[in-house]
From TrEMBL:
Organism lineage: Eukaryota, Viridiplantae, Streptophyta, Embryophyta, Tracheophyta
Keywords of this entry: Hydrolase
Family: Belongs to the AB hydrolase superfamily. Epoxide hydrolase family.
Highest taxon, organism lineage: Eukaryota
Name of the protein in its database record: Uncharacterized protein
Alphabetized GO MF terms: hydrolase activity
Length: 135
């Protein structure tokens, strides 16, 4: 992965509330939902995309590792990532279960996109609470 900046992390230059103010913009949300650019539009340009190269390097030893803890996966039916070609089949036809052997449940919440905890906080919390009650 290529790094586009020499800055070592977003937190060292981010002003409190700056990203939140930008997120409030309808144009930003429209861009987020329709962009084909791999750079997330919510990250200020001065921050760059620098952590991806470092994260790639730091997580390389875990490549191929399976998630071994009990897991409940919740996704919104309007989440664009859920509609990437092949993703639904991967999630629902056993591919995801191979990577997450203790996957106990997949929930597709209706009428929500990527930020399920903000769009339907009560329903999201209920799913989390129901899951942790098993332990």
């Amino acid at each position: 992965m290529k790094s586009y900046s020499n800055i070592k992390g977003p937190s060292n230059i981010q002003e409190p509330g700056k990203v939140e103010d930008e997120f409030a913009s309808a144009e930003l949300i429209k861009g987020f939902l329709s962009s084909r650019n791999p750079r997330p539009p919510c990250i200020p340009k001065e921050i760059g995309f620098q952590d991806i190269a470092q994260n790639w390097e730091l997580t390389a030893p875990f490549s191929g590792c399976k998630i071994q803890v009990p897991t409940k996966f919740v996704v919104g039916d309007l989440d664009l990532t859920y509609h990437v070609p092949g993703i639904k089949e991967y999630i629902h036809n056993g591919g995801f279960k191979k990577e997450v052997p203790n996957l106990q449940e997949v929930v597709v919440m209706e009428g929500v996109a990527h930020f399920i905890n903000q769009e339907k906080p009560d329903e999201t919390s209920a799913h989390i609470y129901e899951f942790i009650q098993k332990f």
